[in-house]
Structures are given as C-alpha cells and as structure tokens.
C-alpha cells in the first residue's frame, strides 16, 4: 500500500522500529479512518510519542506502535463521527493511489477498496478497530485486547459481531482485471466523446452514483439513481465550462482500476466503481479538494 507520511524526517535510520513498521501503521490508521490526511496526522503523533519514550524500556516496539496508532485513531474516529453528521452531501473515503499489482503485493487489496471502506463506515469505532486488526492484519483476540485494554472475551464478542456485520454488507462484485480494464476504456471513451448511449450501455439499470464535494465544490448532494439520470448528469457536468481542461486518466485507486481527473497535471478528483455482470453498479465521485491528498503523488509522477 502506498503510505506517504510527512511524519518521519528523511534522516531517520531504517532500523528505527517506526520506519520498519510504517506501512503497517499507515494501513491501520487509513483503514480505521478512511482518510489519508488523518492517517498521516496519526503517524506524526505516533512518531512523536515513540521518540518521547525511553525506547530501550519498550519490550515489544511493534506492539507499542500498533497500540498507539490504534488508540489515536479511535480518538480521531470518535470525534470525526460527530463532524460527519453535519457533512454537506454524501461522505466518501479519501481515495488512495496504490501500486498496479497491489493485489499481489498485499493481502489488504480487498479491504482497502473504496466499497469496503464504505462498509467499514457502518461499524462503531471499536468494532472497526477490532475488525481491521483481526481480519486485515491477523492479530489475535488476545493481542487486540492488549491494544485496547479490554478483556479478551469482550474483544472476541466484538470481533464476531463486526465480522457478521461486514459479511452481511460486504460487496460482491466482478473482480476480473481484464473486464475492468475493458469497461474503464469504454467508460473513458464515452465520457470524452459525450456519447450518452454508449455510457448507458456500461451502466447497470439500477446504478447509483454518489458525489462527495463536501460543500466546497459543486456536486450532487444526494445519490443519483438510474442509468439514464446518471449518464445525463455526468455528461452534463463534463460539458460545463468549469470542466474545461479536465483530463480523465485511468489509475489504480484503492487496489482497483479507476479514473482520476487531472487539470494541468494536478489531480482534482477520483472516480471509483463496482462491476456486476460486466456493468457499473455503483459510481463514486470524490471531488472534495480537501480529500485528494492520496492522489497527488500520481499527479506529480505524470507531470
């Protein structure tokens, strides 16, 4: 997983446990919070705490760091939930550019998908922490109990409840890489050509589209339903003067092929989607300018 952080100085030794486990720490924070910026903040706070303690007295540095990240993320998630209640329009996770072969490099490829992060949002903070630590990173209930200062029996109950909750809502979509690439190419061609019929052929009849503009940029504040409404809304937006100069590019986002919108080489938004029977079932547009930090590295690389 791509895990940029502004927390660690470039001069930090590679043998520092924080650096050694940085990928794990970022992944834990990101999957708990669904926010690249918040995950980076958590890493910075963790780094400060790590370098404020007598490190020689820490018997298990990795466990100490994971515990610190987990509890900082829990605090941040609890406060963030209150903020999201007043959020303008749909709230979507921050997109994260991942390696093209992310599915081969990490077992987190499925759980880091945008669809899964949306499901994790329906869990309570502690349930989400237990699920991520257990199901994604493979920690035992006893280890998680130590991280959270809770009885192991309680953690086991929480884990069972969270797993059942996620499984009942877990998205089941097409995972064929070649099919997704073919649909993406056709989707881009239809959008660039303004072809509403070609676009509708790619959309499931009951497709739903969500837009996260955060009240900062123009975006639909309610989900848009149906292939005709979604197609015409999309092409209508692309035809507006405000969309002039926007270039659509394929990119691997949260472990799956998606699309980023770029202006003068700078990413301004992301499109992720789910496929069912070869058609797009769900479309998610992340255009909140405060939530595209996970796209910036890709934009810089393509300048």
What does this structure look like?
This protein has 303 residues and is an alpha+beta fold. It has 2 domains: 153 residues, PhyR, sigma-like (SL) domain (Butyryl-CoA Dehydrogenase, subunit A, domain 3, Up-down Bundle); 125 residues, Nuclear Transport Factor 2, Chain: A (Roll). The protein contains 13 helices and 6 strands. The protein has a 6-stranded mixed β-sheet. The longest helix is centred in the first third of the chain and has 24 residues. It is elongated and about 65 Å long. The N terminus and C terminus are likely disordered. One of its GO terms (molecular function) is sigma factor activity. This is RNA polymerase sigma-70 factor. Belongs to the sigma-70 factor family. ECF subfamily. Interacts transiently with the RNA polymerase catalytic core formed by RpoA, RpoB, RpoC and RpoZ (2 alpha, 1 beta, 1 beta' and 1 omega subunit) to form the RNA polymerase holoenzyme that can initiate transcription. Keywords: DNA-binding, Sigma factor, Transcription, Transcription regulation.
**Known CATH architecture of the largest domain:** Up-down Bundle
Unreliable residue runs: 1-13, 102-108, 298-303
Q: Structural class given helices, strands, pairing?
A: alpha+beta
Count of DSSP helices?
Answer: 13
Overall CATH class of the largest domain: Mainly Alpha
Task: Give the neighbour order of strands across the main sheet.
Answer: 2-1-6-5-4-3
Q: What composes the largest sheet?
A: 6 strands, mixed
Provide the domain count.
2
Please name the fourth-level CATH homologous superfamily of the largest domain. PhyR, sigma-like (SL) domain
Q: State the end-to-end distance.
A: 22 Å
The total of beta strands comes to 6
Q: How much of the polypeptide forms β-strand, as a percent range?
A: 15-25%
Helix content: 40-55%
Tell the overall outline. elongated
């Amino acid at each position: 997983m791509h895990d940029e952080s502004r927390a660690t100085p470039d001069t930090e030794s590679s043998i520092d446990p924080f650096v050694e486990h940085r990928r794990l720490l970022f992944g834990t924070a990101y999957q708990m919070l669904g926010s690249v910026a918040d995950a980076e903040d958590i890493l910075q706070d963790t780094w400060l705490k790590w370098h404020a303690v007598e490190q020689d007295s820490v018997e298990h540095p990795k466990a100490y760091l994971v515990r610190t990240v987990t509890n900082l993320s829990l605090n941040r998630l609890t406060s963030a939930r209150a903020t999201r209640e007043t959020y303008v329009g749909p709230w979507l996770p921050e997109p994260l550019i991942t390696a093209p072969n992310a599915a081969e490099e990490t077992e987190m490829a499925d759980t880091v998908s945008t669809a899964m992060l949306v499901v994790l949002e329906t869990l309570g903070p502690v349930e989400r922490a237990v699920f991520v630590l257990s199901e994604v990173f493979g920690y035992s209930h006893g280890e998680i109990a130590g991280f959270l200062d809770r009885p192991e029996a309680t953690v086991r109950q929480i884990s069972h409840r969270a797993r059942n909750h996620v499984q009942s809502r877990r998205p089941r979509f097409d995972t064929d890489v070649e099919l997704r690439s073919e649909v993406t190419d056709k989707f881009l061609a239809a959008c660039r050509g303004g072809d509403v019929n070609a676009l509708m052929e790619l959309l499931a009849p009951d497709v739903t589209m969500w837009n996260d503009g955060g009240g900062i940029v123009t975006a639909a504040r309610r989900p848009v339903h149906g292939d005709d409404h979604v197609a015409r809304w999309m092409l209508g937006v692309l035809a507006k003067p405000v969309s002039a100069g926007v270039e659509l590019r394929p990119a691997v986002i949260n472990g799956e092929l998606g699309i980023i919108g770029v202006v003068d080489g700078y990413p301004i938004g992301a499109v992720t989607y789910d496929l069912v029977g070869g058609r797009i079932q769900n479309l998610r547009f992340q255009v909140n300018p405060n939530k595209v930090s996970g796209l910036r590295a890709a934009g810089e690389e393509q300048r």
